[in-house]
Give the backbone structure.
Amino acid sequence: MKRNLFRCLGLAAALATSSIASAQTALRMGYALAPAPNSHYGVAGSAFAEEIAKRTQGRFKIEQYPNSQLGGEREMIESVQLGTLDLVVTSSGPVPGFVPETGIVDIPFLFRDPAHARAVLDGAIGQELLAKFPARNLIALAWGEQGFRHLTNNKRPVGTPEDMKGLKLRTMENPVHITAFRTLGAAPTPMAWPEVITGLQQGTIDGQENPISVITSAKLSQVQKFLTLTRHVYSPAVVILSPKIWGSLSEADKSTFREASKTAAAAMRRFVDDLEKRGVDDLKAQGMQVVMGIDTAQFQSTLAPAYAEYAKKYGQANIDRIKNYK
Ligand code: EAX
């Protein structure tokens, strides 16, 4: 009698466990840098994971794959498009290769400051851009943030466009950036992030450009001597979901995923704000020689031919709409 009872209890427990397991869907999320608390991507990933688990009572579990484990950002976006990866938190770098219109946000010296950039991206303009992703088989949930990009290199302190001449500069796989650095006189080399550190160590590239958030979390002071606070581009991030997953969600869960991505974006922005306060001092303490600023107008006038190309590609009215946004 007792043995039957225990057998029934065991069966009930097994059924209960398997029903919880089958009721839980694990989603894989990839990103380029360290997990929380050591990078803005990790902070976004963990904030998203916690929010999803809480709001869906554990029906969804986010499994994070940090440190470019699943490849460079372009590769991860392709995997999300194909449905072999569920989520990616990526920089805007490779995105114009999938959604061409987004390249407008990568134009040098377009955004005045973080508040301007956040207002544009969270407002009508930014939401219009996110709405262009589904036609490219990607679901963009929210704009996150990396911060303003700066220049690092091993050759010399850079203070003017003249100093850029001939610099073998790694850029993201982004046509707007490649045009900009070629126009400034550098030798731009588009390269996926996972190859950058080795390239700098081996001298195949002299420098790269990234926000303080990336320079610190990737410990670039170990492979780069000079930093110039160029603030040449505001670098957004974007949380992208696979359309395969999106199509399987109820309306309520779709709203939950959007809200959780906004929570992740807010966590990213807080992380970047905090790092901007102390990141340069930390990099100086780690031995980097820092040029604290440039004559932005001088760089902008050198970039005139690039701006003419951008106006042709994106429309001067669209560029001005962002530039003048209050
Ligand atoms: O982690 O490829 C890049 O430079 C991007 O900023 C990337 O997110 C770095």
